[in-house]
Design brief:
about 140 residues, mainly alpha, 2 strands
Length: about 140
C-alpha cells in the first residue's frame, strides 16, 4: 500500500513539473514570436521610409536640374512608387495589416460574413498595386 502511495505521489509531482515546463516553453515561444513581429514591423517601416526619401531626392534633383528635359521629369514622377518593393511588402504583411490595408483601399475583407484568406487578400492588394500604386503606397506607409 505504501508503494502505491509513493508511486502516485511521484506521478503527481512529475505531472505538475511537466505542466510547469510546458507553460514556460509556451511563454518563451510567444515572446520570441512577438519579438520577431516587432522586428518585422520596424524593418517594414524603414523600407517604406527609405524608398520614399530616395524617390523624393531623385525627383528634387531632376526638377532642380536646369538641363533636365520635361520627359525626364514626368518619367521620374511616374516612377515615384517602387512597385517591386511594395509587392514584396504586401507578401510580408501579417493578416491583420493586410485586412486593414484592404479595407482602406475599398477591398472587401469579408465574403458572406467570413474573413477572406490571407492569400486572397494579398492577391487583391497586388491587383490594386497595379492599378493605383500611389494610393497603395500611401496606405502601406500609414500601416507600417
Amino acid at each position: 500500500m505504501q508503494n502505491i502511495q509513493d508511486c502516485l505521489t511521484i506521478i503527481i509531482v512529475v505531472l505538475f513539473n511537466l505542466g510547469t515546463a510546458m507553460i514556460a516553453l509556451d511563454l518563451s515561444i510567444t515572446l520570441v514570436q512577438l519579438w520577431n513581429r516587432i522586428a518585422d514591423t520596424d524593418s517594414c517601416l524603414l523600407q517604406v521610409n527609405n524608398v520614399t526619401t530616395f524617390q523624393q531626392a531623385l525627383i528634387n534633383d531632376t526638377i532642380l536640374s536646369p538641363t533636365a528635359p520635361v520627359d525626364c521629369i514626368t518619367e521620374t514622377i511616374a516612377l515615384e512608387v517602387d512597385v517591386e518593393l511594395l509587392a514584396l511588402l504586401i507578401q510580408k504583411l501579417p493578416q491583420t495589416r493586410a485586412r486593414s490595408a484592404a479595407r482602406r483601399l475599398g477591398i472587401s475583407d469579408k465574403v458572406d460574413g467570413k474573413y477572406q484568406k490571407l492569400g486572397i487578400l494579398r492577391m487583391k492588394l497586388q491587383e490594386a498595386l497595379k492599378s493605383q500604386p500611389q494610393k497603395v503606397q500611401q496606405v502601406l506607409s500609414h500601416l507600417c
